[in-house]
UniProtKB/TrEMBL annotation:
Regions crossing the membrane: 17-35
UniProt similarity note: Belongs to the WSCD family.
Protein name as catalogued: WSC domain containing 1
InterPro entries given in the database record: P-loop_NTPase (IPR027417), Sialate-O-sulfotransferase (IPR051589), WSC_carb-bd (IPR002889)
Alphabetic keyword roster: Membrane, Repeat, Transmembrane, Transmembrane helix
Residues of the WSC domain: 143-235, 246-340
Organism of provenance: Oncorhynchus kisutch (Coho salmon)
Length: 581
């Protein structure tokens, strides 16, 4: 009996020693890690840098940092299947079992930029200045002259001209070039990514240390701070050598009966020419320059002077010859030019002040102009639009609603290309944007091959990828419309081509559908600034017709099917230019 007890005693002693050894090793390892961590913090702060104040506890990152559950859906099927659904198509057969590619996925680099921007928005001004001072700033040569650091806020802008954003590549040179071609004398940068232009600085100067953020695309170059604007003069160029973008002749227009309501500014200039009048109005930050004989006027489009009813050009040519010898009826016509200056009446945007209880979709087939319509809605309403996806390129260029969770209720409407029944029924209403399938297919193929602003080369159009693209995407164009007509609860149909030709009436209809009160001045401002940052320059087309007879036969059949479905749903049919002749 003694022998088994002795063995048990020995076993228990060994176990105690083993457990004691493990405990000591664990404590030593933890101590080493703590020492290393403390040494790293001391090294980063440096001997002369002030200690960082404790940051406030950060909430969970916004939903924009997590990808929403994007349904994977391809859009194949034959045209005969689509056409057969017009008379009485049922859900499930074609649309509910799709497989294909995921649209507009974010990349890791874009997510990191978004996290950094979100983190900065949670820090106080004091925290920001302390963080920036811990990193030595290197001198970067600037293109123009640095004017200093100025106060800036959304209600009282230091520079009240155009606004542009690039959260990845913004530099002081890029901002100065943008302001220069738009006719401005000063360029200001804020938050490291926002560019403001103007001809007059309207706020107070502060200490240069308060502009403590680097440009996103140029480390070491000052790009403002929190509510602070780093202001530069653009590179000096002689007036005759200035290069402006898009000075556009709007036409000949009769002076309104109540000329005082148009708030035109009379500019007195010796030896007046159209160029000198345009430059004078640009210096005064007006988007319109108007000539009448020896007089120059600057102003905006207003409800009494909409520029929607041009007169015969001969009226302006006669009134600009010898005004004194002409009847009074011919002395009241203006030659109107659109200057590169941005209309500043509709540049401010924000999230909805209260969470919306209604979820509105802005739905379209890819390539139908969804980004352009979002731009117009944001200009007219002053509220950001959201997206079912996250496109870092759009977010980096100023569509801040991209980072917001699509069901947050903080955006005026939500972009989507989805068209399954389950996805459609998540929305209370929809603005259904339709564009000619020929143009939509070409626009989306351009985007796939060359990005938002590029064009596919002739080589791309001649590869086998193009016919495969048409074969699968053309039927998706039709099924997308048919699904939303069938399952959408409240549908407003907008045709892209009609929005182009009659922008103000169509945009008024959209804002009314969104239950938003918008002034006529805001609508006219949106029309003036309609191009935005995502308009492809020119109308570059392939040197040959990319659509074969077989492709046209497929697409024309789908056009007839969609046109009939629209009429059966008590909507206006497709524009005549869609229909095959």
């Amino acid at each position: 009996m003694a022998k088994p007890l002795y063995r048990l005693q020995r076993f228990l002693r060994r176990t105690q020693l083993f457990l004691l050894f493990l405990g000591v090793a664990y404590i030593m390892a933890g101590s080493v890690l703590l020492l290393q961590r403390a040494n790293l913090v001391v090294t980063q702060r440096g001997a002369t840098s002030p200690p960082l104040s404790s940051l406030p506890s950060l909430p969970s990152p916004p939903w924009a940092l997590r990808m929403p559950p994007v349904r994977v859906g391809g859009y194949g099927g034959r045209s005969s299947q689509i056409i057969s659904r017009v008379q009485g198509y049922q859900p499930g057969s074609l649309l509910d079992d799709r497989t294909g590619t995921r649209w507009l996925m974010s990349r890791n680099l874009e997510i990191r930029h978004l996290r950094r921007r979100w983190f900065h928005s949670l820090m106080t001004e004091k925290d920001m200045s302390q963080v920036e001072r811990s990193t030595p700033r290197r001198n970067v040569p600037q293109k123009g002259s640095y004017m200093g650091c100025f106060l800036d806020n959304s209600k009282e802008r230091a520079l009240r001209g155009s606004v542009s954003t690039d959260f990845r590549k913004m530099t002081s040179t890029m901002c100065q070039d943008t302001c220069s071609v738009s006719g401005y004398q000063f360029a200001g940068l804020e938050y490291g990514s926002e560019c403001y232009c103007g001809n007059h600085i309207t706020s107070l100067r502060v200490r240069d240390e308060e502009c403590n953020l680097d440009c996103k695309g140029e480390k070491g170059s000052p790009c403002g701070g929190v509510g602070r604007l780093s202001v530069f003069t653009v590179e000096d160029v002689l007036p005759g050598q200035r290069r402006y973008r898009n000075v556009r002749y709007r036409g000949c227009f009769r002076e309104p009966e109540n000329s005082s309501s148009t708030s035109l500014v009379h500019v007195l200039q010796p030896n007046l020419t159209s160029q000198s009048c345009i430059e004078a109005c640009m210096n005064k930050e007006f988007p319109l320059a108007m000539l009448r004989s020896s007089d120059c006027f600057c102003g905006y489009a207003t409800p009494d002077f909409t520029l929607h009813e041009p007169a015969e050009e001969e009226h302006c040519s006669q009134s600009n010859t010898t005004e004194a010898s002409l009847p009074s009826t011919l002395q009241r016509f203006y030659q109107v030019y659109q200057t590169p200056v941005q209309d500043s009446r509709c540049t401010e945007r924000k999230f909805l002040p209260e969470k919306s209880s209604s979820l509105v979709a802005l739905s379209s087939f890819p390539g139908a102009g969804n980004t352009w319509v979002r731009h117009l809605i944001e200009l007219a309403t002053g509220y950001y639009t959201g997206s079912y996806y996250f496109d870092g390129t759009l977010y980096n260029r100023g569509f801040k609603g991209e980072k917001d969770y699509w069901k947050s209720g903080r955006t005026i409407c939500v972009k989507t290309h989805e068209s399954g029944r389950r996805e459609i029924e998540m929305y209370d209403s929809v603005i259904l944007l339709i564009r000619s399938p020929y143009r939509s297919l070409m626009a989306e193929f351009n985007r796939k091959c060359a990005g938002h602003l590029g064009y596919a080369s002739d080589h791309h159009w001649k590869t086998k990828e193009w016919p495969e693209f048409v074969g699968s995407y053309a039927s998706w164009w039709a099924s997308h419309v048919l699904d939303w007509l069938r399952f959408g609860r409240r549908v407003l149909v907008v045709h892209f081509e009609e929005l182009q030709t009659a922008l103000v009436p169509q945009l008024r209809s959209i804002t009314s559908f969104l239950n938003t009160t918008v002034t006529e001045d805001k609508l006219l401002c949106a029309e003036s600034n309609q191009d935005g940052h995502f308009k492809r320059s020119g109308v570059r087309q392939p040197t040959f017709d990319p659509f074969t007879p077989d492709m046209r036969g497929l697409i024309d059949g789908l056009i007839h099917a969609v046109d009939q479905a629209l009429r059966d749903s008590n909507h206006t049919g497709l524009p005549l230019e869609y229909l095959p002749r």
